[in-house]
Amino acid sequence: MRKNSIKIPFFLPYVDSKDITEIKKAASSTFLTNGPKLDAFEQKFKNFTKSKFAIGVSNATAALYLSLKALGIKKNDEVIIPDLTFAATANVVLQADATPVLVDIDEETLNISVESIIRNISRKTKAIIPVHLAGTSCDMKKIMKVARSNSLKVIEDCAHGVGTSYNKKHVGNFGNAGCFSFYPTKNLTTVEGGMVITNNKKIANFIQLARNHGMSKSLMSRYSSGKPWEYDIKDVGYNFRLDEIRSALGISQLRKLTILNKKRLSAFLYYNKGLKNIPGLIIPNEKNFKNNSCHLYIIRITTNAKISRDRLFYDLQKNGIGSSVHYKPLHEFTLFRKKGISRDSLSVSKRMYKEILSLPMYPQLTRSKQDLVINSIRNALN
User: Fold this and answer.
1) What is the distance in angstroms between the CA of the first residue and the CA of the last residue of the chain?
2) Which whole-number Å values give the CA distances from 49 to 33, 305, 327, 344, in the listed order?
3) How far apart are CA 39 and CA 43, in angstroms?
4) How crowded is residue 148: how many other Cβ atoms within 10 Å of its Cβ?
5) pTM, whole model, 2 decimals?
6) How far apart are the C-alpha atoms of 135 and 37, rounded to whole Å?
7) CB count, 10 Å around CB of 201?
8) Could you give all domains of the chain from N- to C-terminal order, each with its CATH number?
9) Rounded CA separation 111/105 (Å)
10) pLDDT tens digit string along 129-173?
């Protein structure tokens, strides 16, 4: 297909004139990294999620990795993760010299299966990383009960979950740490960027130091008073900083996040109304929409459908409509087959991978464009 043939893209970042203004202001600052904008963004994100600490980092992968390091995950440890997730969830476990254990998912929510977690716990298991896929919260009550019973750490992968809550508490606050992504496809973007929230001061202190080479002082504090070269390094650190320009964009995005997430919810409901009662098509359960960031709208094209998932993907593409799959399961990748462990059949994950398709979803999505998507699907499947 020609590059210009997609009329309704799968994703479309929301960056408005107010965002651009804040970016320009930050670009003229003396401190372009580790400065007042980062401090302000962390404070506002902490307030938004109602967590005790929020630490900005370069991306969600760095957030996950630093959280594992803060919790002491090391060589020969096992970390349980869902098979249906982005590669970063597994990569960080390998980067920490530990072993990712791939477990099955729940058919309705596509989130990690609690029963599969239980089946995969061994004497080497040290942590669980539940992923709040598409913005739908995992069953954190059950997961935390299993974790406490087995003395396991929990790191929540909240890459899709900014604005998602569970039992009136924002996701990321249930485990030892919660990790957020601000990638361009996410509900809140800083182009690249991430955040760790935690209610544990020791974890927060470790990540604050580790993200900046282990240095005891930030750039701003070093050059605000005293000798700028007088600082200490007590542990190995990394260059995982979140700069001032991206922090300024994050602050601006956070101001309108609730409104933008409501627009996503409205689009979710409109899709559900238009895609009802199509043979072989399963749409998301609306009971899961409540307190949901509505990051991805995922349908399922079952074996009872007139055509396959892949055929529908190509039909939509011919009509100028972008779509995608979230995700190719980890067991399909060479690296994770070699380095990971799976004691389950992963039967649900394998079946869902053949059926799931993510439709265009962003605040700028108009009803007329949604109608084009809906009609294209109806014409293909009826």
Assistant:
1) 25
2) 23, 41, 27, 34
3) 6
4) 10
5) 0.96
6) 27
7) 10
8) 17-255 (3.40.640.10), 257-381 (3.90.1150.10)
9) 5
10) 999 999 999 999 999 999 999 999 999 999 999 999 999 999 999
